[in-house]
Here is the input.
Amino acid sequence: MSTQGDPWPQVRHEADFCVVGGGMAGICAALAAARRGARVVLMHDRPVLGGNASSECRVPICGADRAGQIPYLRETGILEELRLDNLHRNPNRDYSIWDLILYDKAQYQPNLTLLLNCSCLDAKMSGNAIESVTGWQLTTQTHQTVKAKIFADCSGDAVLAPLTGHPFRMGREARSEYGESIAPEEADDCTMGMTCFVQAREYDTPQPFEPPPWAHRYDSVDQLPFDPHGRYEIEHRSFGLGYWWVELGGEQHSIHDTEEIREELLRIALGVWDHIKNRGDYGADNWALEWIQFLPAKRESRRYLGAHVLTQNDLESEGRFEDVVAYGGWTMDDHHPAGFNSVKVGAPATIYHPTPSPYGIPYRSLYSEKIANLMFAGRCHSATHSALSSTRVMGTCSSMGQAVGTASALAVSRGIAPAGVLDNIAELQQELLADDCYLPWAPQVLPPLTRSAKLSASQGKPEPVRDGVGRPVGTDPHAWACKSGDWIAYTFEREAPVETVTLALDSDLEKDIALSLYGGHHNQAEPRVPDVVPRTFRIEGFSGGEWELVQEVRDNHQRFVRLPISRRLSGVRLVLQEMWGGTESRVYAFHVA
Here is the structure.
């Protein structure tokens, strides 16, 4: 603590890795590094984690699967773990329970110190490296200073850029700068805007609504925005979801003008609800507001200029980089800077420019060449405005975050800077794959014991469980299909030490499991653990001429399972006993090491 008499005490922390920003990218970065042995501090300026996905904003986490429209491209790794925890523990789709799940993961993760309600306001430099950052923790009225070897900016607004003097970009590049066809002819300061939702609940009786006098009034649907496919219809299911097109800020400063923008967004949002309730026939008589968003959900502000600036052309050519460490697949969803007011200029609220799904994201877009120990993930990563219109969605940001956290732990263990990890990129890729991340076109190199063992099964073709691809790709399932009671086994030429068994199980990757209050997408899973997930299974070891129980796993709800074994065995067998309601499932990976 500080000396006596200082009204604002100083609290100091030392870490290997400091993450600024606890949105989905920051959570995944912090967890990934801590689980690989790095001492981590996560500094976040809100009382709850998750950023736009938290209860304060309630934006569904979208990604390469485009809300379940493209099968089997849901992001695995830490994000999948969090989502499956949510299905298991939060069947009522309560956003406060989702907050609790994220808090639980971070607060009780070994090697991780969580600083909530702490806004980063200063950075101290030592040469071309960050020595420490300091935040103001509102609840304790203390300055929290973190000294670390590596820093990651996952704040969304790239708060460390102005604090360190790092180059950044804000606004749209000119079309000629990177040869991007969807960019404007001239560069400008315009960004995509921010949104405020209102969400409603249905009751058994009519629910009147009287807007506050300062709310806007919209007598006609012609005053509301429309999407590229025609006039936007206010669908019945959207009453409980909110409207993304209640959006402003792209023509103002999307950081400094946020309070002013929020006030206008509230006036619009309540005016839209007044229109639905009182000025049209939408079948909303029994619906009443239950939540109003007071923290706008932001799409774009500052972007770092890193070792590589990701562009529209990179995305359209599938991002087949040698240093791919993450992936995306959302369309280039380029919102008009005028947002809600785009209807006044006769422009669509957004244009969906096609991208392949998946496309790769290179490691070089996630670290600085100017500051030796600075990395970044989430919507402030190194990209043009056009590329960001796709990469900004939270499934993609989570994928980037896990890559940055894993890379930082590797850098700390080797005593090298983040840029030095580029020389060890194959190792970083294999560490990500080993933790159930998916990297397009990069198969996992399997442990020697897995490769050399004899593989057999009670039925079917078991070989795909060790082909290095842990999910369906195209028409190839890359899986062993199984039912309750089936088994799959490795046997060895001689007794060998077995330390771990790693499984990638079926979690219904073709379904959308984004958290939203009322669902609504045709391919959205029910808010519970998918029927195909193996709930109970046994790991057996072959020893002394017979199979014996090593571990029995009950009430599993996860796709990725890593079990410690630490025994000498002549074989290892997985026996499926029970699913969460179904009788058929798949095993995508079964590895012994």
